[in-house]
Amino acid sequence: MSTTIAPDADRTRTATASDRTRAENSLARKLVAPAIVLMLLVTAFPMLRALYLSLFNYSLTAPDDREFVGLSNYVTALTDSLFWRDTANTVMIMVVTVVFELVIGFAFAMVMHRVIFARGVVRTSILIPYGIITVVSGFAWQFAFSNSNGFINSWLPFIGDDFNWFAEYPSSMIAIMASEIWKTTPFMSLLLLAGLAQVSEDMIEAAKVDGASWWQRLWKVILPNMRSAIMVAVLFRALDAYRIFDNIFVMTAGANGTESISFLTYRQVIEQFQLGIGSALSVLLFLSVLLVAYLIVKLFRVDLAAARQEG
Amino acid sequence: MKAWLNRAGMVAGFALILGWCLLPVAWIVSMSFKSQEAVTNGSPGFFPSEGGGAGWQNYIDVLQDDQFARAILNSIGISLIATILSVTFATFTAYAVARLEFKGKKFVLTTALVIAMFPVVSLVGPLFDMWRTLGIYDTWLGLIIPYMSFTLPLAIWTLSAFFREIPWEMEQAAQVDGATAWQAFRRVIVPLAAPGVFTAAILTFFFAWNDFVFGISLTSTESARPIPAALSFFVGADPFNRPASLLAAGAVVATVPIVVLVLVFQRKIVAGLTAGAVKG
Known about the structure:
The complex is a heterodimer.
Chain A: H1 2-5, H2 8-42, H3 44-53, E1 56-57, E2 67-68, H4 72-79, H5 81-114, H6 119-131, H7 134-145, H8 152-155, H9 169-197, H10 201-209, H11 214-225, H12 227-242, H13 246-251, H14 261-271, H15 275-310
Antiparallel strand pairs in A: 1-2
Helix pairs in contact in A: 2-3, 3-15, 4-15, 5-9, 5-12, 6-9, 7-9, 9-12, 10-11, 12-15, 14-15
Chain B: H1 2-31, H2 36-41, H3 57-64, H4 66-99, H5 105-116, H6 121-134, H7 140-164, H8 169-176, H9 181-210, H10 213-217, H11 227-233, H12 244-279
Helix pairs in contact in B: 1-12, 3-12, 4-7, 4-9, 5-7, 7-9, 7-12, 8-9, 9-12
């Protein structure tokens, strides 16, 4: 009833609007399609294929002997101590490097934020580690720690000149993490710098006038106001660190138990051609990254709520 | 007194950042000037020892190495092609994301986010298998495709952030004057968006140049092997004695393009990195 008495002008307007929406929708779909197809072609499709292959006993050295084995590849992986040792290594690398990067990166961001001279020089040099190939960074640090050709032993006071960093587990891990931290701290500091720039100077000034010390201003004004930037930086870096592969490949090749979970997967698939168990490891690696992402997002929410209650 | 302390602290922090960033680079350059004999016999210390210097010999050897020259060519070609294609597709996507209202925008952004965090190693097995079936294992195309997929998220974010800053009234003005959505996009927005596109291209190029996992897994010969993979497999004449100083020279050569890009486009790279991450 109401539609029949609706004025003509109104009808044409809604008609144009929905035409426009439809046109926008179809244009958007055309614009987005190539990127989406490409992204899914190289990730979703292979991942589904990995899921399928992980159910087989399948070795590329004997492709005709492929047989369906159900979930037994997963059982093999999850009951193997190697899997858990490498996962523990990976988690340790992730936690240690992200903590160091956060602290050092924040200090760098503070300096870059305040420094009034030669800004260009600082920002240019901070981009060098970011841009450098990880393999090159791995070599540089491996040579630096080397006891036959490096300089670190002679620079560190409590270390003997012939100490071999790559002979045992703890020192090898330190070398690997040094390279990782060196290369990625600049990225962290740039993200934090952007967050720092969004904290209002007036607020900091007001806290100063009210008599807040430097330490109080940092913890009660600056950090709470840039927590979204911190969260983004931590999430990105943690998931990136969880994938650690290049540095380990170059510096120790997994010797002395320094393998990461990515390295184990690579070794199964590419070096030993065990596509069945390798695919199961791929699926587990993917799931663990999802889990880490979920935990970080969750953890930060808890953290934020706690911080708010305190304040 | 306080101002003076502040200034001293700034200078110290400034020096610390420069040292952090440049010391390992200086070290690898210094290493590349140590002679092969000195390295074999052991030559600890930051600088080449007395009589243990090689002059430019390591660089001459590296540049005359066929495999290394080929790897440089592969890396430049693959990275450039992947960058151009990836940025083109990302530009379309970012325009839609920043500008149009459509169903599935959330899906696009979520997909990009998930892929940015994807553990790449979990893909090498299936891709290795698929690429061999398709016959693109150990070819340029076999690397260009994964590089595109994994640089698209960063390019999409960076570009969307840039596109949100563009004065869109100009596009509407063009549409009022009778231009279609597509014409408005091509004639008005593309020129305004060029700086953002350029930034996304540099970041994409960095990623492709840096990749190692795909480089070692999806190639088997020098016909497509990029620089990072070639460096890691470089053994030199004597397989039991890794030519450390030669490798260092190769590493320096592989780093030069990155340093040049950073020196020339520093301001844009910083803007691109932070825009994508904080506003997105």
